[in-house]
Amino acid sequence: MTSLWLLLLQACGQTTDKAYTLMLKGLYQNSVPVITSAQLKAILATGQQQPLLLDTRQPAEYKVSHLQGARFANFDTFTVEQVKDVPKHQPIVVYCSVGYRSEKIGEKLKQAGYTNVQNLYGGIFEWVNRGNPVYNTEGKTGKVHAYSKTWGVWLLKGEKVYDQ
Q1: What tens digit of pLDDT does each residue of 125-155 get?
Q2: CA nearest to 155, candidates 72, 65, 38
Q3: C-alpha span between 35 and 147 (Å, rounded)
Q4: Where is the signal peptide (predicted)?
Q5: Which of 118, 97, 116, 91 lies closest to 27, judged by CA?
Q6: Which pLDDT score, from 0 to 100, does residue 17 have?
Q7: pTM for this predicted structure
């Protein structure tokens, strides 16, 4: 069903919040609590205890752009050992393009005893679609790695990058 929606929406060349929500509902196992872009933005604005942001995408995706201050945690090679310096109770927000890969990393963290793990609902695509900034090594950027032409249909704002 999700594949059919992806193909139909790609053919139309546009998406809607309702379609995106439906797609995410089909992908998520609901094994990790979610945090919305608005909720995360509000937390980051407080300047109080900041969550550890874990970008669980591929190196090329992270290089193009990521949330400010995010730590890279390659989905393909991630081990809990990479976050052994993080207290088990510290807030952690995991994200990827749409939230599927990050949910899997969140599951690993929860299984390892991390108690305050959340998955960014809709991933970096939703973050950018809601008008929030992303960064690279040079500072703020409008570029976002769109993963693939099929998945890029969900990225409505920013400059789509597929290979770097």
Answers
A1: 999 999 999 999 999 999 999 999 999 999 9
A2: 65
A3: 22
A4: none
A5: 97
A6: 80
A7: 0.88
Q: Are 159 and 143 in contact (CB under 8 A)?
A: yes
d(CA 15, CA 153): 7
Q: Are 82 and 73 contacting, i.e. CB atoms less than 8 angstroms apart?
A: yes
Whether residue 10 is predicted with pLDDT greater than 80 in this model: the reply is no
Q: Are 78 and 114 spatial neighbours (Cβ–Cβ below 8 Å)?
A: no
Judge whether 65 and 136 are in contact, CB under 8 Å: yes
Domains and CATH numbers, the chain: 30-161 (3.40.250.10)
Q: What is the rounded distance in angstroms from the CA atom of residue 86 to the CA atom of residue 92?
A: 9
Triad 120, 124, 130: Cα angle to 5°: 90
Across the chain, which distance is largest between two alpha carbons, in Å? 46
Rounded CA-CA distance 122/120 in Å is 6
Judged by DSSP in three states, 81 sits in helix
pLDDT value for 164: 53
CA distance to 31, 86, 91, 141, 155, per residue, from 115 (Å): 13, 11, 8, 33, 31
